[in-house]
Every structure is written in C-alpha cells, then in structure tokens.
C-alpha cells in the first residue's frame, strides 16, 4: 500500500536516512518525515519503527512515534483543546497536532458546542484532500460499547458525557457504560455536546437503555430553593414583596421556580423559624 493509504493509522517503516531535523522513513517506495519534535527516540539507518501518520498544517504527510488510541480504525475518548467559532473545535488525541471537528459536524446552535475540557467519543476520517478530521460516534457505535442496565439500577445517581444533543433531549453515555436519554423536560437547560453531567436513572427500558433526569431530587431541590430565597432576602436587607399570594409569573421571573416550589420552600423556612410573612411581604427573622 502507498504511504498515503496509511494516513490516520499506524504503520511500521524503516529509517531510510538521517537528517539534521529528523528522520526520513520509507516503505520501500516512498518517504515520509519523522521530525525530531515528533519523537524522543534515537534511531539508526535501517531500523524499523512503528509510527502514526497524519497530515500537518500544510497538508504534508508526517509521522510521529506517539501512537494514539484514536485512529481511522479505532474510537476513543478525547478532550476538547480549543474552540474556534466559524471553524469548529480542536481535539487532543495525544499527538502534538490537535484534530479538527468541523463546524458542519457540530450542533447548529453554538451554545451547545463543546467547551475546552469536554470529552467526546470519536474516530478519525480522511477526506479527499488527504486531510484528517474528527468524526463523532453515532448511536450504533455507542450501542456497540454500551452495557445493559437492570431494574436494580433504577433511581441510582449517575454521571457521564453527552454524546448527542437535540431540542427534544440529549443522549448520554455514563461512567457505568449505560446509554441513556435525557428528555428536555428533565433538564433545566440543554447540556453541551461532550459536557459531563450528573443525574439519576428514572427508568430502565426493556433494551437495557435508561432514561435520565438532571433535575435535583425533591430534598435537594427544596434545599436549593430555600437557599435562593434566603440569598434574595439578604440582598434586600431581609425584606421582599413576595409571598404566598404572589403570582406564578412574578415568582418564575424573579426566582426561576414554580409557585408550588416557592410555597414549599417558604413553608420550610417558616417552620424552621428563619422567615415570617406580613401583609404580603416576607421578612427574615430579625428584619422588618
């Protein structure tokens, strides 16, 4: 096979000759450069060496002795290293050159593009111009690595990374190896592609996949809502013009919670003796 056919793969080549800036490797017919910046090895003429072939920023085929897990034949998890609006995102697969996931392969809304540090399950592809790009894992690929959840996993806390996102919901691959779906009603905001999220299993389906909620459990939500109210009171010197009779619209606008959640939190705070209400206003104890 020609050198060009191994782009994005590992191959064993022989050191054809030495150069000041590295080594020229050969398959017997063609040469490729292994730059000294792409290896920590000291090589000799005639020595066989395993390398990974990629295309550099100028489109030239280059070699590295750093062998990545992710190739055109293998999938793996890799971290986002940079985001370039109008171009796409760059991903670190372990070699010196980061790989590009083009804008055309990312969600339409940039708000759910991955950020630096997010993790994606990817492989590599080579286009007609012999340039390497990143390819995201599809559902069938995730199906191939996922394990089935059981009824015993119901209601467990999980965490994982978003591998696919849409308006109707998000798809997650968990640390346990479960494939899951997060309906839009079970999240406050749409997670980013590649974002690590924490949730809980709210259903185990017959095929072993799971439904996940990112909403906090009732007790946790009550804690958060109570804290939100107390923080707002503190910002207003202990008094606010909101209470049991406030409209759902006003409560939603001010506190981003439903009236039912607001009333539950108020009831808890009053029971704990932290607040009281008077003439439609709510006060911290000791303030009026």
UniProtKB/TrEMBL annotation:
InterPro entries (alphabetical): CvfB_fam, CvfB_S1_2nd, CvfB_S1_3rd, CvfB_S1_st, CvfB_WH, NA-bd_OB-fold, S1_domain, WH-like_DNA-bd_sf
Species in which this protein is naturally found: Cytobacillus solani
UniProt family annotation: Belongs to the CvfB family.
Name listed for the protein in its UniProt record: S1 motif domain-containing protein
GO MF, one annotated term: nucleic acid binding
Domain annotation S1 motif: ranges: 155-217
